[in-house]
Amino acid sequence: MRLTWVQPEDLVGHELRQAAEDGRWDLPEVRDIAARWHAAGGQAAPPRAGASPEAPPVRLRRLAEDLLDRLAAIPSPLPEPSGWNEIVAACPAWPARGRADRVPGADPARVLGAWQGRAAGCVLGKPVEKIPREGIREIAEATGNWPIRGWFTARGLPPETARRWPWNRRSAVNSLAENIDGIPEDDDLNFALLALAVLERHGRDFTTGNVAQMWLDELPGGRVFTAERVAYRNLLTGIEPEETATYRNPFREWIGALIRVDVYGWANPGDPATAAEFAWRDARLSHTANGVYGAMFTAAMCARSLDASSVTEVVEAGLSVVPAGSRLAAAVRDAVAVAGAERDFERVVDHLHARHGHLHWVHTINNAALIAAALVHGGGDFTASIAGAVAGGWDTDSAGATVGSIAGALNGGVPGQWSMKDRLTSSITGFDGIALGELARRTRLMAG
C-alpha cells in the first residue's frame, strides 16, 4: 500500500526542492545528500498516481529517513523567521491592533457575502483542479464559457476535449452546472468550519494545541494532505506542536495553511493584526516561514475586506503582516505591479507562470501571487476575480475560494449566477446541511 505525502522515500525529493527554494541548495552538504540519494536509486519525485504500489527496499527507506534528518539539521541562510516576535519585527508596516474609527462588529451583509464568495469560488474551481491552464481554457472555450462567466459544464463538450482534459473525478459529480445541488463538501470549506468550531469551543485565546485536537477529533488522516498529513502523522507519534510543522515535513511552505484561515479574518473585522495572529497560531501546527506568511496574508486580507472600500486596501493590509524581505512578499508585490499595469489578464498569468512555474501547483508562493493578481486585476468585480483565480490553473478551488471570500465581502454578496441552494454538505460534526446565513451569524458572534 502506498500512503502518499508521508513515506520517507517520497519526501526526500520534495525536501531537496525545498532546499532549492530556501537557499540551501548551493551548500556542499546539501549537494552531497542529493548525490547520495540519486546514487542509491532514490527518485526525485514520488510515483505518479496509479503506479504500481511496490514497497521500496528497506535500505532505501532507512537511507531516506537518515537523509531527511540530515537535511533538517542544515539551516537556511535566508532570514525568513517563523516565530511571532521575529515576524512582527520583520514587518516595517505592521498594522496597529484594532481600529478606533470602525463601527464595532461586522456588516452582516459583508460576512454573508464572504461565506457565499468562498463557496462559489471553491465550487467553480473544483471540477478543473489539477487541469493545467491551457486545458481549463480549452474546456471553457469549447462550451462557450470563455472568458469564464459561469459554472463549468460537460454539456456540449467535444469528446476529444473531455478525453484530453478529464475532470477532477471526485468533484465533477457535484460541481458542474448540471449537477450542482447545494454546496458540496470540500476541504477548503471544511477548514473554515473547523476554524469557526475552534473559536466557538475555545474562544479567542485558542492555542495551536486546540487546533491540533480539533483535527484529531474531526478529520480522518486520509482526508488531509501534504503538510497537514505530515503534521497529523507527527501528532499521532507524540510529537508536539510546533515541531509537528518541521519534523520530516517538506511541504511546510505549501498552501495548506493559507486555505484554513478566512474565518480568523472575519472574526476580526478591520483588524488585520489580530487576524494575522490568529492565523499564525493555526498555521504553525503544520507550516513554517512562507507557509505561515501565506496564512497571515490571507487572514489579514479577509479582516480588511469587511470594512475596506477597494481591493488595494485589502492587499496592502495583507502585505503589512508579511516580512518585507520574504519570498512571499516579493512574489505578491510583483504580481500586484503586473496586474495593475497589464490589461490582458492572460498576459498577467503568463508572467506568473514564467516566474513561479517551477513550484508545485499547491505551493503557497505561486498561489498567493495569483490570488493577489486576480484581486487587483478584477478590481472588485466578483465574476472577473474568481474567474481569473481559477483560469490561472494552479490550485483552482483554493485560489478561487480565497479570492471569492474577499470579493464577496467587498461586494456584500455575490451575483445571482453564483448563488447555490443554501445548504452546505460537510462531515464536520454539527455542520452538515447548515445554511451560509447561519454560518455568518455564528461568525459575527466570534468577533472581538
Automatic annotation (TrEMBL):
<keyword id="KW-0378">Hydrolase</keyword>
<keyword id="KW-0326">Glycosidase</keyword>
<dbReference type="InterPro" id="IPR036705">
    <property type="entry name" value="Ribosyl_crysJ1_sf"/>
</dbReference>
<dbReference type="Pfam" id="PF03747">
    <property type="entry name" value="ADP_ribosyl_GH"/>
</dbReference>
<dbReference type="InterPro" id="IPR005502">
    <property type="entry name" value="Ribosyl_crysJ1"/>
</dbReference>
<protein>
    <submittedName>
        <fullName>ADP-ribosylglycohydrolase family protein</fullName>
        <ecNumber>3.2.2.-</ecNumber>
    </submittedName>
</protein>
<dbReference type="GO" id="GO:0016798">
    <property type="term" value="F:hydrolase activity, acting on glycosyl bonds"/>
</dbReference>
